[in-house]
Input
Amino acid sequence: MDVIRRRNQHTHNEENISTKSTKQASIRPAGTRTALSNISNIQKPVNTNASKKKDATQTSKPAAHKVLGRVKSQSNLMNEKKKFVKEPVSIIEVLEDGEIDALISEEEDDDIMTLENFANLSVDDIDLDDLGNPTLCAEYVKDIYKYMRKLEKHLKPNDYMLRQSEINRKMRSILIDWLIQVQCRFNLLQETLYLTVYIIDRFLNNVVVTRTELQLVGVTAMLLASKYEEMYAPEIGDFVYITDNAYSKIKIRSMEQKMLKALDYDFTNPLCIHFLRRISKAGSVDSRKHTLAKYLMELTLIDYNFTQQLPSKIAAAALYISIKVLDNSEWSTTLHFYSEYSEKEILPLVGEMAALVLSLDSSKYQAVYTKYSSNKFLKISRLAEIKGETMKQLSTYCTK
Output
């Protein structure tokens, strides 16, 4: 009897709950649904009669003000697109908003060399054989380098030593020479070294630093470059150790934040090594010529005079010296096309680089020479041709 009484009481409670739910549903505002219906995937059948009544009340054409508003919004959208997109559309011309976009949109592309302009000359398309390899981006590589050439002009630092009161060119050279040793000690990539130097130059171009902060700027720049380029970047403790505990982790982190803000979180500097790989491929040079060009480019990192030169031009001048010194090859039309520099354009820079090499014996900065005297770099810095007659002749083009 107790079981029957509990069962009847349970059914009575359920009836009370169901009546309450129906009453609540009757007072629920129109358009709301119960909680279960909100998460249900089951769609309710459409009331065809209601939809027909709704269609009958509507006119066959939309209201005039709605049509005008739609046309106006579409025209505004097209006008906005015309501001940023030109015909024909390329990977260079459709970019994010910012100063770089304004810089690129103002420049004309009439002077950009194309294969059609060199149709009457013997210029090889070095990307044809790479179309089957998606990692080489053969379809986009020309546009990519076209963009990089415009970007390097935008990110080039000024003669910032005129603004610095406590540091000078000699201090910068000592710092870069030491950082090259650190790069070898940590086995970092070549890209990391170049990006480190570019970060330092751009930061010093924007911020005045004291003499005691210069080494801190150097290790922080290498830390940022490692995070950007390396798969496994060194830890902050490694840089504390390499500076003999001159700076703590807190100071390095503080300088890291300061440097990020000063550079506007932009580390897209085109590097010399990127352009060298491109024109080395165009010239079909061997490993000795390519390594010698890398050696010459790294020598320019230490000298402040080369901070005003574009990375693409430094790469072209380095390869020009390399092919002239080793086998006296010609600066071919293909090299002219892919480097976008004629022989006449790079000869003054070639003279400066040749003079820098010849003055290396009396220089205190021997980190690059020691680095490239190892078997890993084919002992390229010990070549007798580097101090030969060809190098001396090239140094005569130096105008400084």
Observations:
- Residues 14-110 have pLDDT under 50 and may be disordered.
- Residues 2-27 form the longest helix (26 residues).
- The chain is about 60% helix and 0% strand.
- Residues 80-154 form one domain.
